[in-house]
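Q: Give me a protein?
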Amino acid sequence: MIDEFISSVVKEFIEGIIQYDAPEKLSKSAREAMARRIAPYRLSSTLVSYGMMVCLIGVIIFLIITPEQTSLCGGSYLARFALYMLSYTLGAGLLNLLLSGIIRSWRFADFHEACAYRWRLGPGGLSIALTLWGLFLTSLLLIGMNL
């Protein structure tokens, strides 16, 4: 009973932190201004969102059809899954950073906000969600290396 209460409190707390700046909570004028600001990044944020799903499905299929291998990260399926997904996640952010340094009209924060809008999160909520995702994948990687 106490464990159910604690798990529900933690769940509500994490959902509240992630959803605190969601687009649904913005005023109509703020939502319209955000939509105008992120309009140039609509296609690229869609590609990143669908790319994440394709990468997830592709990694799972790849891991199913390939045997365990000895490698730098231990070779277990868990470690390889975490490494591949962490690579995609960090790679998308680093590509955004690179494009914001190369292309003058590219804004790092606006692209980040466009990606957050695709997942119905605010930019702060996406930052927290990506941090939790990274911590989860890093812990999977460390666990998989010790198997």
